[in-house]
Protein 1
Amino acid sequence: MKILFISQRLPYPPIRGDKIRGFNLVRGLSEQHDVSVVSFIRTTKEMADVEALKQYCTSVDVCMLGEWKSKLNACLGVFTTKPLTLSWYYSKQLWDIVQKKIRDEKFDLLFVMCSSMAQYVFDNDNPKIIDLVDVDSEKWIQYANRTSFPYSWVYSLEAKRLRRYEKDINKIFNNCLVVTEEEKKIFSSFSLYPDKITAISIGIDEEYFKPLLEEYTSNTIVFTGAMDYFPNIDAMIFFCKEILPLVKEKLPDVILYIVGSSPTQEVQRLANNKDIIVTGYVDDTRPYIGKSAVCVVPLRVAQGIQNKILEAMSMGIPVVTTSFGNKGVGAEEDKEIVVADDKNKFAEKVVEILQNRILRDQLSRNGKQLIGQRYSWKRVTDELNELIETVC
């Protein structure tokens, strides 16, 4: 079967949530199908990644997404009724690439990653599946509730527009994917065709994210994630200002590593090169995760499944998170994961794990077992192939 895979972000290398899912779907689908990728890139440096991705698929066509042009398009989009996300990700060049590919190559299926890219095939009659990953309108509602004017107004506007657009997507596409049953429940609550919504989870590469041979470093805490992403920024500001001081009252020598690309100025200001280290982009997060005593994920805004939690669990690192963080993972509290929404309880749980080796080992063992039982990319690909057969 010939599949055209359309993505807002080049699905390589697998270093952040959407790229991890995109890459593993491309790799898995390519085992049984001819997959052609069309995607945006942000910098010329990504051309090396384009070449690397070609080993996993039939072809890769890209065009540059200019930041300033995208911002201008989004600003002008305020005066339309479309979601601002669509204006941000619109490109005549990409449109031409997609239409030429469809016209010349006769694809059996169009597979779209994220709602922003649906516009490129919205009126096409080919069988088509979209992977929404998360229900983005719900995410923007959370953003609006967490920020003040004028951001809250913009986020609320985008939430309303996206919700209407998601209903249209649900009508036009043969099937819509989300990553959890909770996301499916949210989408089904306002969609007209809930029978065309399918929850297919994400996976984790257990061979890649495996425990290190070296012993972990006591009193070391880690957080990983793209540090220009609002939920991650909010989580670390909250942790550093509200929770970490409580931890340090009991354990003064605790060190926190904030590991992730593109840290904003807000995040960089958290660093003091003493007990809060902001690394910026690193080629490999595993040494930071695997050498840590505990992974903290104090998310107050979140949708879907958190890769950072699965990666830590797979490496045998206990995780302390919030209800938001565990909502998609669905781990058993106090057995496979520790959940705390109150800052005092969160700090207390972190200290308890750092001081209690037996408790830490139990959480480590149980968390890793959960990953092996529930999160496999082969299982994800098998479920997706079954759906494709049904749709096509």
Protein 2
Amino acid sequence: MPPSSKRLIQDIRRLEERLRCHWARQAPPLSHHLRGYRQDWLKTFEVPMREATASELTSALLAADPVLVGDFHSLRRPRRSLGTLVRNMPEGESPALLLELLPAHFQATAKEVLNDPKYQLVNGRPARDVYESPLRAAAKRNGIVVGAWIDASPQKRDLAAAKQWSQLRLSKPNYRWLLFFGNWHLADSHLPESIRNVGGNPAVLHQSPEPIWEKAGHPKKEQLIRLGAGHWAWLHTPPLAQWASELQDAPQDDSELCAEIAEEMVDSLASGFAECLGLPAPQQPPSVWPADQWPAFWSTLPNRERLAFSEETAPLQMVLHPHLPAIWTPANPLLNSLVEAGGHCLLTEHPLSQQTSPEARLLARAFRRVWARFLNPFLRETSLTELGSRLFPESKADWNLGWDSILKAWEDRQMPFLEPQQRVLAYEYFGGLFGASLVQNGNLDHQILKEILDGEWMGFNWPTLVATMRAA
């Protein structure tokens, strides 16, 4: 890797650490009681650690009774990962999920919870929406779901959950139990110790704990870490994503307040990216439009975008105004969307955003994706079909069937002859792939990114890019 590229990565790492500190300070302060509870959790990671294999973890989970899994309540990825654990259980076994956020002594089959929105978590959200992945996996194995929440201190909830599990284990001996609780409950002296005191032999799986992320040195791929006796860590989500969710989760029922919080976060990202490149911070602040303002946002778009989208049917993912620092989002944006919005706001103050050629549109999309890839190394590209269905939910088109015509238009540089939806989809999809490939090349540096912003980058090779897209 060239020295200039290493300097860029070092600058981005410093930016990420500053953002984490800044966003952590913005989170509601902890009470003295909770600070001590969190401190116990931090002590759990003050042990020697080593990288582990999937087979080692699988063996440990199979030998455990029960398995304790960490949940960062406002993030989707930990819940999807719980679904993965359920799907990977041995054939013939039925799972029992003990969920912290369901009321204590609630009990139903996974299929019942999955099919009925009346089953709600203590925060008011339907359980089937929040835990769809593990519920689907459990329903296929005739699994059950039990609640553990009581209105008490975290310590009392640990004791109550352990007692409840010990009783359930006796009354339902033919299930494999997985307890899904907030991260801090998994400190060795908290829920694990309570489980051991009632005869259990728990294995504890922490999901992307921030202290281990620090020790692992910003891993570029998912990792499994062994942490002393009975504790494991699964690194799959950067801590910055957790802080982004934490800040936006509290006012979830107030769309205007959520939009204001997102605007502040996007502004801090855009200013950080400018600082990385030695550029002045953007002068125009971002504006984030909440879900119910889609028709008004749609009306501000240039004609080519208005023709692609429907005023009546809002997309299912973030949409950016091509030339203005304006962002519409259907829900509280996750880290990847916030980062791309920050890159977009920086972009709108430079010449590239005012250019409309296929090369410029593609580069603008790639520029946003570069930052998302740097700040979330676990990021995966969305398939063409999924992206099309999220951008244009009213369309019944099978976007894979349109692949040949889209690619042919790219090869011949005949983008104006594509349908409006095809053009938007092509820029989003191919630009995302292009941005990812720029990061993977390992040659990006400050100068290249500034040249891209100014529309002066000479490294754009259309035939090579088309070949890469065809291979993808």
Protein 3
Amino acid sequence: MRSTPVAYLLWFFFGLLGVHRFYLGRPISGVIYLLTGGVFLIGWILDIILIPGMVRITNLEWKTRGA
């Protein structure tokens, strides 16, 4: 299970490197963030809104895999 507060901490401190995206199981967008500096800061800022949904989806995917 992934945690929203942990995702926000990773976003705040390492978000331009895409660490929060790797944490949430999105390696392709993580690499894109890593290479573009959080998609030139715009994607990094938008993730303020998107993180709770990404955590929810990631946790649902983990639950269905374990069933």
